[in-house]
Amino acid sequence: MRRTRKIQVPYLNTFQSLWEYRESFLAGQIDFSSRIGPVCPLCGRLQCYRKVAPYWRYAVELFPGFRKERIPVARFLCRQRRRTFSLLPVQLIPYFQYTVGAVLGTLLLGWGCWQRGQGGFWGASVQVDPDSLVTPWLVAFWLAAVLRGLRRGHAVLGRFYDLTGIVTPRRAVPWEEVAGYFRALSVETKMHGQSLGMPLARRYSQATRQFLFGIPSQHRAPNRP
Predict the structure, then answer these.
(1) Distance between CA 155 and CA 54 in Å, rounded?
(2) Which strand ranges, in their side-by-side order, compose the sheet holding 7-11?
(3) Contact predicate 198/15, CB 8 Å
(4) What is the DSSP letter of 93?
(5) How far is it, in rounded angstroms, from Cα 72 to Cα 23?
(6) What is the pLDDT at residue 222?
(7) pLDDT tens string 42-88
(8) pLDDT confidence tier of residue 173, bands split at 50, 70 and 90
(9) Does residue 93 register a pLDDT over 50?
(10) Residues of the chain with pLDDT > 70: what percent?
(11) Which residues contact 119 (CB under 8 A, 6 or more apart)?
(12) Which secondary-structure segment (H or E) carries 51?
């Protein structure tokens, strides 16, 4: 039997942290329907979707300190198509446990190490809390994933930021390229926690209704038997 494909939609919000979002969610203080609007995002019909039980996933923050907790994610069912869609807070990246702030903050540490002639992947991994289980391989994976997202979103981000100085030659040095983007996009160089990178993530999602980083469920290759 063919499995029903899930849909992940960015949930734009102004919470200062995921933990504030979690508390508001559990207190029943978030009106998700007003954010979605009356039109079902899957079939386009009025009043077609209904709320179903949320699912829970872990989220890891690294700045200003290590914190790992389970986060509820709101889900809805399209009655017409019998498919669910979830509203993933923009502080999170699809299929990443680590937050946008954790990923970008770690890459900023790696860039600093690379500038000093040290190994950027290793240097970043040893500067974060050891309980976070960040490895050099994971930092390298994040660097590649963030660059893919920034390159993909270049045209959209160029509406809000001056990206004329960003050049992506075929043999670009990844650390130099990502640092160029960070400077142009005003990604904070101080570890202010969850605010790291959030203005640009929100702007991109507001303009496109897509995630800047990561690949949501509906765009992933289907599992093969």
Answers:
(1) 34
(2) 7-11, 83-89, 67-78, 49-61
(3) no
(4) -
(5) 10
(6) 67
(7) 888 888 999 999 999 999 999 888 999 999 999 999 988 888 899 99
(8) confident
(9) yes
(10) 91
(11) 113, 136
(12) strand 49-61
Distance CA 6, CA 149 (A): 21
Q: pLDDT value at position 190?
A: 52
- Could you give the angle at the alpha carbon of 16 between the alpha carbons of 41 and 42, nearest 5°? 5
Omega within 30 of 0 (cis) for the link into 64: yes
Pairing mode, if any, of strands 7-11 and 83-89? parallel
Q: Output the pLDDT for position 33.
A: 87
| Mean pLDDT value of segment 137-161 | 95
Tell me the two tokens of residue 124: 């970043």
Can you count the helices (H) and strands (E) in the chain? 8, 4
Candidates 104, 80, 82, 94; CA nearest to 194 is 104
Instruction: Report which residue type is found at 95.
Output: Y
As to burial, measured by CB atoms within 10 angstroms (0-12 exposed, 13-18 middle, 19+ buried), residue 6 is: middle
Pairwise CA distance, residues 55 & 72, whole Å:
6
Distance of alpha carbon 22 from alpha carbon 67, whole angstroms: 13
Q: Which residue has the tokens 């765009």?
A: 219
pLDDT for residue 193? 46
d(CA 204, CA 198): 10
- Interatomic CA distance for residues 217 and 139, integer angstroms: 23
Closest CA to 97 of 54, 66, 51, 130: 66
